[in-house]
Amino acid sequence: MDKFIDLRSDTVTKPTSAMRFAMLEAEVGDDVYGEDPTINRLERYAADIVGKQASLFVPTGTMGNQTAICVHTRPGQEIICDGRSHIVLYEMGGPAIFAACVTRTIATDDGLLDWGVIGSMIRGPSDHFQGTGLIALENSHNVAGGRVYPQENVADICDKAHAEGVPVHMDGARIFNAAAHLNITPAEIAAPVDSVMFCLSKGLGAPVGSMLAGSRSFIEQARRVRKGLGGGMRQAGVLAAAGLVALKESPAKIPADHANAQYLATSLANVPGIVIDPSIVETNILFLDCAQSGMEAFELSRRLREKGVLANAVSATRMRLVTHRDVSHEDCAVAVNFMRDILNARTI
Ligand code: TLP
């Protein structure tokens, strides 16, 4: 196969020529000494983009989230979050390992929390428990299908959490997708939260890296935690250079990814055997259910791969598709046709 149409994730995006040139020319130094000029520029630029005092370049979104959790909490404290959030499902039990915290999860359909339910779970320290250390919100929410928080919910949760003395962290791995959907800036989204992590390596297309942003004193502590987690990088300005290009050039391309996701959802809704509700596809992630087709999602995924389309089955009946800058509208049309062909052949 010459070229796969890769709908597994937006993490698969490849660096552009502009990113590769910037990497070639990047001025570098030892970042553990704070001497990498390109990282310093990226950290300033990224902080400004999300409207925070400072930011920190981290190798992965996972390290960014875990660093934030370590800074905000003390061992034994509770983190209130949605039950399908990335920090719960896909970070290797990091909150328990690195911060020695427990997660108190809330079951939701759309991945989005509100104060009604969070408020009832907040508790202060007592002789029986350590109490709430942190609230974590994911925006957009990956496993709920790229759903985006109405901004007034974020503001309301943060106002009330702060009144209780509880900080709020946002896993904004895809904050640029959320911003494009709401037609507001990442800084507006992040304004009420105490810290925000966002990824350069997903829809923005950089090869590696995420940013953690917050107050100056939060980032000072985060720098030490990052070192302890093994994330003190040296001449990583070569990576930061690509990140700077990604931040400057890629946000404008995100609406096209959302249009492609909407196209996939509406087209697939008309394929017999597939169930998907296009009205809840807000950004670049969609989940479909193929139970009615009689074909297991794992088998559908395998057959699509034979035709050059990559898409992950997440259970026997569900698949996730993610659009990004390296798949075009035409690629999406090809993927829909293959899916229709495979399922038609099955029912004959
Ligand atoms: N998500 C990946 C997988 O880990 C599931 C993907 O393909 O979507 N927060 C959110 C909301 C994420 O979706 C991810 C990655 C991360 C954090 C972690 O980022 P990395 O992979 O850089 O550690």
Structure write-up:
By secondary structure, this protein is an alpha/beta fold. It folds into two domains: 235 residues, 3-Layer(aba) Sandwich (Aspartate Aminotransferase, domain 2); 95 residues, Aspartate Aminotransferase, domain 1, CATH 3.90.1150.10. It is built from 14 helices and twelve strands. The strands form three sheets. The protein has a seven-stranded mixed sheet, with helices on both faces. Strands 9-12-11 form a three-stranded antiparallel sheet, covered by helices on one side. A hairpin with a 4-residue loop joins strand 11 and strand 12. The radius of gyration is 21 Å and the shape is globular. The model has no long low-confidence stretch (mean pLDDT 97). The structure holds ligand TLP. Ligand TLP binds next to helix 3.
Mean pLDDT: 97
Question: Would you give the CATH topology of the largest domain?
Answer: Aspartate Aminotransferase, domain 2
Uncertain stretches of 5 or more adjacent residues = none
Provide a count of the helices.
14
Most strands sheet: 7 strands, mixed
Shape by Cα distribution: globular
How many extended strands? 12
CATH architecture classification of the largest domain: 3-Layer(aba) Sandwich
Distance between termini?
27 Å
Number of domains: 2
Beta-strand residue percentage: 5-15%
Q: CATH superfamily of the largest domain, please?
A: Type I PLP-dependent aspartate aminotransferase-like (Major domain)
Strand order of the largest sheet: 2-8-7-6-5-3-4
> Which secondary-structure class do the elements indicate?
alpha/beta
Give the bound compounds.
Answer: ligand TLP
Radius of gyration: 21 Å
